[in-house]
Amino acid sequence: MDPHGQCDGQRPCSRCAAQKDVECVYEIPVRQSKETLRNEIDQLRRQQRSSEQVLTALVRSELVEEVLSRLRGGQSVEAISRWLGVAVPSLGGAAGAGGNTSSPVGFATASGSGHYGAVANKGSGSGPGTGPAPAPGPTSPAPSQQHQNLRQEPEQHSPWAGPFSSRSQSRVGSWVEGQEDSQRFAPQTQVPTPELPEMRVPPETWTTITADGGLVQHLLALYFCWEYPTFASLSKEHFLRDFTEGRPRFCSPLLVNALLALGCRFSSKPSTRANPMDPHTSGDHFFKECQRIYYQEQDHHTLTTIQALGIMSIREASCGRDSESWYYAGQSVRLAIEMGLHQLDGDGHDDDETAVQAATFWGAFALDHAWSLATGSLPQCSCFPRLPPKPAIIDDIEASLWIPYTDDGKGISRLASALEQRLSQSEGAPLQRSCEQPSNVRSVYKCFCELSELVHQSLYVLHSPGRPLTSRDLLSIYTQYLNWYDRIPEVLRLGHNFTPAVLFAHMYYHFAILLLFRPLIKLRIIGSSISPRDVCSQAADAISGLLRSYSQLYTLRRTPSFVPYFVLTSSIMHLAIGATFSGEKQPGGETELTQSGQSSQGPSRSSKIGPRVVEAITRGIADLTEMAPCHFFAEQALNILRFLAKKWNIEVDISPTEDEKQLHHGRPNFDQSTRPVTSSLNFFSPNVGDTDFNCNWGESIKPGGDTERRTGALGEHLAETASALENPLFWPFPMQGRPMLPTGEELEKAGFELL
Questions:
Q1: CB 49: neighbour CB atoms within 10 A?
Q2: What are the tens digits of pLDDT across the range 222-248?
Q3: Which of 422, 647, 700, 706 could join 597 via S-S bond, C-beta 3.0 to 4.6 A?
Q4: Burial grade of 700 (CB within 10 A; 0-12, 13-18, 19 or more)
Q5: pTM of the model
Q6: Which of 495, 487, 490, 580 minimizes the C-alpha distance to 533?
Q7: Residue 752, SS3?
Q8: What residues contact residue 420 under an 8 Å CB cut-off, 6+ apart?
Q9: Residues 531, 534, 540, 546: is their CA dihedral positive or negative?
Q10: Residue 547 near residue 507 (C-beta atoms within 8 A)
Q11: Residue 133: CB partners within 8 Å, gap ≥ 6?
């Protein structure tokens, strides 16, 4: 720059540009440099004050969750400081220490690549299932070395099962309740009850069924202790905040009554029953109020209605009304999709709204897929759905304690005593281990979302018309399950955490694996050492082992509502394997099950099964019997096992429960209870005949006549023979869906062959 001229701010400036061979140099005046430095210093001081203000807020219990959630949500320190200046005047001249003390749940995008663990143990190099499962190669459709036999004892799956089973064989449930000497098994510290915020509005704000605020709080605590967060479509923090304050944004009478109806399943108090003398009416009064409100609504497109439908579905599953449960779950996810909750990006919504919307969608998504898995059908979402981000892991929520909670303080104390006593007896377990555990609720929920994505893929692998199942597709999705399990967080591995939600997640994994392979137990996979029958056997053993651990820790009077479905599925597999590998085999081959479930040995002889299978079946029956007072589907499951055992000629002693004796005056008709009815979709009705599918109209055969009986018997025999010859699939419930699998020569091309 010409030192005698003026600079116009350009580089080079106009004067220098007009001259030849002149270098344009601009020297910054010293005074401007000092001013710039002062500005920078002021900026650093402001940043320091903002940081100090945020740090000060982090040490205040009423602000820490809010500040952490905003930091994880991507807000800058300066933005949070400005918010504090407005909301909390005691921090650096801002205003008000009140503010919102509830944590808005933040969400972050996750990979979505679910990796699932093996049914086999991966701990020892000498045992089955060592190492991660490699992806299937072009010449071999599956890894040939991992899980070679896939046969192991259930104790390997749960570090609590072995030590417990080596002690007393009595159930911890009855053992705990039978302890009168409270000082002998007294916990070292008083076990606190789960803390719920104190209600600031009367109970009538949310329900017309009861004015007892203590009962309302109690039932909500039971739900959040034993059922939440699996299949939960609500955000606990947001719900409780609005519930206690009486705000209808994330709470509604429909949702509250649904939660209370479900919470009643975990209580034996007469006040939780519509008829105090009838346990089968538990929660019916709250549920009828749900239905009344729901059918009065003119528009169901609200977050709380979607959430309530999911809770209603879970409650009906517990009651054994599978058709109603399936319907409510379907309505919930359809409404979520119609509202666009599956394609949220967070734009245009505040943090609270985004968090609750995402939780609502993922809960509906997971529940719909659980029912699709259980009934053999495609889910409501398309093959490649657009999905919202999964929940972020929030340290404060993760570290919140899970504490066992029952009907009264004594029940809590006894349960805590039993838990600590059992843990102190476990080999390798620390003495006096507390029953209080970090809930890890966010990790559980996130893993459940990932697992539901894998279930989604497996359902489309099995049930897509026009694209029959192949061994390559089957083993590919199986490998994804194995890899997902390898990569679950350390805090969710058995031995680190044993809350009901964690044990349930492990059971659900084995349930998914079992139903992936169950239709194929009559087949072998060409070129692979993976045996569908062995995988199913091992998954059934794993469910039994996990449930034994659950029973000895908490009893089976308080289990999540889908656990009886897991037990039924594993017990059916034990029955099927017992019928196949019975001591009486046909000459030259194994005992075979026809599709109808009838043993090919004929009905004249009963199969003698091995002691290991007898033990597994007996355990399943005992588990269902213990769950029956809490989940009435367990009674239906026992009837199903009775029918299938009789059909498959297996000697199994399944005594009727006390409720069944009273209901049927001592002589319950088990066969009739497994028949389909016109008021149900009959997903779990195994006793299906030709007349349930065929409609006789204008035929000359009289109903109930000898000709009809002979014709029906002959038709049934021919149908069974044709099914056994042509149908390579196995499924015990005719009304459920089945995989799209080719037959004949195409079966071998798909990579399968009959055993």
A1: 14
A2: 999 999 998 999 999 999 999 999 999
A3: 647
A4: exposed
A5: 0.71
A6: 580
A7: strand
A8: 185, 187, 188, 432, 433, 434, 435
A9: negative
A10: yes
A11: 118, 143, 146, 147, 478, 479, 482, 483
